[in-house]
DNA sequence: TGATCATATAATGATATGCTAATATAAAGA
DNA sequence: TCTTTATATTAGCATATCATTATATGATCA
């Protein structure tokens, strides 16, 4: 296996991470702001283990950064050092509307498309 | 499902296509020039059905264009209309060295990394 | 210390993916 | 027409992936 082969495999692994609707949605959310696991669970209406596993994979793949604070684990994008990945994350349709309730008064205003 | 959801799914499908080592290699080859199936089979040392199936998927996903001429089917990139995909294809490590034998005198010079 | 909250991990099952082997199609030439 | 060449398609199998269920860890607080 030469260097180009290694790079090809690494690229493929990264795109596998991006080839999932839920993970793209998470990246779209993290583009707006750092979030804890429970925020993402609430917003995407998915189970906690499922979100946790997606985040673990993306962390292993170097796409997100983890920060622990008390009971919470906060995740944020880690794409500054990866120009073409950053480009891709910018292309994800905005998830900003789903973040509204985090700033607003009530969870009852969550949009459920 | 809203429009953003559709787009998210489409993006995920595209990245699934890119999340395979063989398909990335094929795209890297097609970046250099249009190729027929048998060329790709020879260069990548993979079975004809496997390559054919990968090409079919990429054609379905709109990444490549098919042109039939006589016994041969030629494939080429179809990414001009997709800026961020085009960007990605440019990032694929060069496969140009593997194309040498197509211009050179003998197949015995094929590089097999 | 015991209870609760936030998150992680493990086990399981269903579906998806990629390769191979075998066969089908279709064009070109003898 | 028969054969060869190039490609496509199908079926089968092994592995990978994703969601769920159940359980574990670890921090906070009464």
The level-1 CATH class of chain A:
Mainly Alpha
Strand fraction of chain A: 5-15%
Low-pLDDT stretches of chain A: 103-113
Name the quaternary structure: homodimer
C-alpha-based Rg of chain A, rounded: 15 Å
Query: Spatial order of the strands in the main sheet of chain A?
Result: 1-3-2
Measured distance between first and last alpha carbons of chain A: 46 Å
Determine the CATH superfamily of chain A: Winged helix-like DNA-binding domain superfamily/Winged helix DNA-binding domain
Largest sheet descriptor of chain A:
3 strands, antiparallel
SS class of chain A: alpha+beta
Average pLDDT score of chain A:
88
Give the count of structural domains of chain A. 1
Which two chains share the most extensive interface? A-B, 31 and 31 residues
Order of helices and strands of chain A: HHEHHEEHH
Helix content bin of chain A: 40-55%
What would your notes on this structure say?
Chains A, B: GO terms for molecular function: DNA binding; DNA-binding transcription factor activity. Chains A, B: This is Winged helix-turn-helix transcriptional regulator. Two copies of one chain form a homodimer. The first copy, chain A, is α+β, with helices and mostly antiparallel strands. Chain A has one domain: Arc Repressor Mutant, subunit A (Orthogonal Bundle), CATH 1.10.10. Chain A is built from six helices and three strands, in the order ααβααββαα. Chain A has a three-stranded antiparallel sheet. The C terminus of chain A is likely disordered. The interface between A and B is medium-sized, with 31 and 31 residues. The structure holds a DNA duplex (30 and 30 nucleotides).
